C-alpha cells in the first residue's frame, strides 16, 4: 500500500463510511488538531526520563484514545461504518486520573505560568492544542451532529494535561512560576 493516493489533490478528503468533504471543513480541522495534539504527546514522551515509565504508559494510552477520537470525528454519526466512539467511560477514566494525580500535588492557590521542565512545558503546549481542538469541535457541531462525548473528552483531557504538567514539575522538583499581574500605576 502506498502512502499517497492522490485522491486529496482536489482539496477534498474522505470520511470513514464514505463521502468527501473539503479539507477546510470544520470536522477536518477538529480531527486534524486532535492529530496535532497526539504528535505533541509523542514529543513529550520522547523527552521523558527513563524512570518515568508510568507517565509514558499513561501518555501512550492517551495517544490511543486520541486516535479513537479522530476516528469518531472522521465518521459521521449516521454512517454504517464500524468505528470506536468516545463514551462516558473515557471521560470518567480521565477524571479518575486527574483526581489521582491532584491528590499528589500541593493545592493550587494562584494562576501559574506555563513552563518548567521541558516535558512539562510541552504538556502545557499540548493543553493549548487540546483547547483548540475543542473549539474546532464546537464549530463543527454548529454545522452537523457529532458525538457530544468527544467534546466532554477533550474538555477533560485539557484539564488532565494541565495536571500532568504540574505533576511532572512537582516530581522533578521544578518550582511553578506564579502569575503576578502587573501593578497599575
UniProtKB/TrEMBL annotation:
Subcellular location: Cytoplasm
Pathway: Cofactor biosynthesis; adenosylcobalamin biosynthesis; adenosylcobalamin from cob(II)yrinate a,c-diamide: step 2/7
Name listed for the protein in its UniProt record: Corrinoid adenosyltransferase
Chief place where the protein resides: cytoplasm
Lineage top rank: taxon: Bacteria
PANTHER family in the cross-refs: CORRINOID ADENOSYLTRANSFERASE (PTHR12213), CORRINOID ADENOSYLTRANSFERASE MMAB (PTHR12213:SF0)
GO CC annotation terms, alphabetical: cytoplasm
Catalytic activity, reaction form: 2 cob(II)yrinate a,c diamide + reduced [electron-transfer flavoprotein] + 2 ATP = 2 adenosylcob(III)yrinate a,c-diamide + 2 triphosphate + oxidized [electron-transfer flavoprotein] + 3 H(+); 2 cob(II)alamin + reduced [electron-transfer flavoprotein] + 2 ATP = 2 adenosylcob(III)alamin + 2 triphosphate + oxidized [electron-transfer flavoprotein] + 3 H(+)
E.C. no: 2.5.1.17
Alphabetical UniProt keywords: ATP-binding, Cobalamin biosynthesis, Cytoplasm, Nucleotide-binding, Transferase
Homology family: Belongs to the Cob(I)alamin adenosyltransferase family.
Enzyme class: transferase
Residue span, Cobalamin adenosyltransferase-like domain: 3-168
InterPro entries linked: CblAdoTrfase-like, CblAdoTrfase-like_sf, PduO-typ
Single GO biological process annotation from the record: cobalamin biosynthetic process
A GO term for molecular function: corrinoid adenosyltransferase activity
